[in-house]
Amino acid sequence: MKVKVRHIVLNLLWVSVFSPIFIYTYMVGTFFDPSFSRLDFLDDVAAFTLSGDTSHLHVVPLETSTALKKPVGVVYSDHSANSFPSEVTEHKSTRVLSAASEERQPLLNNPITQANESQLFAISLEEQHTLPPGKIEQKEQSVNKSYEMTEAADVQVHRIKDLLIRAKVYISLPAIKSNSRLTRELRLQIKELSRAIGDAAKDTDLPKSAFEKLKAMEQSLEKGKQIQDNCGASIKRLRAMLHSTEDQLRVHKKKTTFLAQLTAKTLPKGLHCLPLRLTTEYYTLDSSQQNFLDEDKLEDPRLYHYALFSDNILAAAVVVNSTISHVKHPSKHVFHIVTDRLNYAAMRMWFLCNSPGKVTIQVQNIEEFTWLNSSYSPVLKQLGSPSIRDYYFRAHRSNSVSNLKYQNPKYLSILNHLRFYLPEIFPKLNKVLFLDDDVVVQKDLSDLWSLDLKANVNGAVETCGESFHRFDRYLNFSHPLISKNFDPHACGWAYGMNIFDLAEWRRQNITEVYHRWQKLNHGRQLWKLGTLPPGLITFWKRIHPLNRSWHVLGLGYNPNVNQREIERAAVIHYNGNLKPWLEIGIPKYRNYWAKYVDYDSVYLRDCNINP
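Now predict its structure.
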């Protein structure tokens, strides 16, 4: 009996005292043991049963395994986030939970972890839905409003044009051609829609009926789309039309450039008649009648001297007439006109018959400058070389549109290069105002002679307002001689109205600088033909910039020259191919030039030169 009682006492002690101690020490040991997973311990506790009842061991009520689903991993771009703020926020929180669940995947099998995760997910969704829906709608409306404001003003015009192109392509497809009813419908829609769009450039220019016809065209095209199942044929046809149009555009641009250059080179019939008529009259005069008055003023440095080199009699007359009409003291102004042998007699005859009052006129023949020969001037030697002649007169050289503008006979004329020999032509003068023959003078230019050029040689208006008037437009900066000595972004300047300090020119020996660079450009590797590129080089860092109002350019190529600038300008320049004496001249600028032409002259009437 005593043994039995002792056995019962030991069992009670084991259950009530030793078992808890054993379990506690086991838990503490495994907690600090890195090889033992805490997750295993949680799983053991969760699986621990007593008399088959496990309900009292759960801290929170369990949910079934299907209660918590893995969130969908949706990622939106920045633009979509602006359009759908509520959805993106929801998915953003979902992605966070998804990432956390992937990191703690083993815990999902645990009931306690499942319960906690479910409650956290529910809390996050509850917080998300607290965002006022009015703010979301307001944000969406602001996004839509900003999109509408940036929409192009001509979107409907482009849409109509696209529909017209599609309709023309559809008509050419075999499947559409076989349907005569749809073909007639499309032709009618094309005609009406083309009439509705007219010359409209913006949506506001479209009539109200255009939008109704647009919808009708879309309906007709939808019918054609259902008939034409093979889109590949349409794509091929559109691509063929695109290539054909591009080829035609290139051909037309080349023809336009060529014809413009040809027209600029061609002398109108009236201007061809005028020197012939004047030359005939000149040689009928006595030798005493062929001389100008006041020849003693030609070398007086105290007077205002102008240099004009031209073979165009009418253009030279406009320059002289426009200049003297604005001067205060005509007797102090002297014009030195240099022309070629063919126009020498005609030029003298014109100014003998049309004397400009008290202004002194001198007309010289370039053939009389015996010092100007190929042994002295490198440019004369180059202009007479076979390679230059071949460049101009071989037909196959004209294939390049970019080179057409350089193939102009004026570049072969030494008259165009006389501007680099001013000290030799006027050895006793200190200052000379150089004028091109395509300018019109609108104000008195006398103040230019008193201008201090600050040890510079050339007073000119800079033309760096536009990118194509920089040095890199005219010079070949791939050549080391150019890239080493000049700045590609330096401002260009304009020929046509330039005040030259000849004393400073002689002191700095500018003519020798010009000769040296002309020799280096023997193969046209530094620049193409012309006078502006060598002028930029020769007068590099020797330019005194004048106010832009002294000289306004562009009237020979730009129809959008500012009208106020033209009115305020002292000199306006018809640089470009659209000269005012040609039929292709810009009409709205023609009167500035024509008002200085004496159309009542008997010589102009005989040659049928009219305003």
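The beta strands are 304-309, 333-339, 360-365, 431-435, 439-441, 458-460, 497-501, 543-545, 551-552, 571-573.
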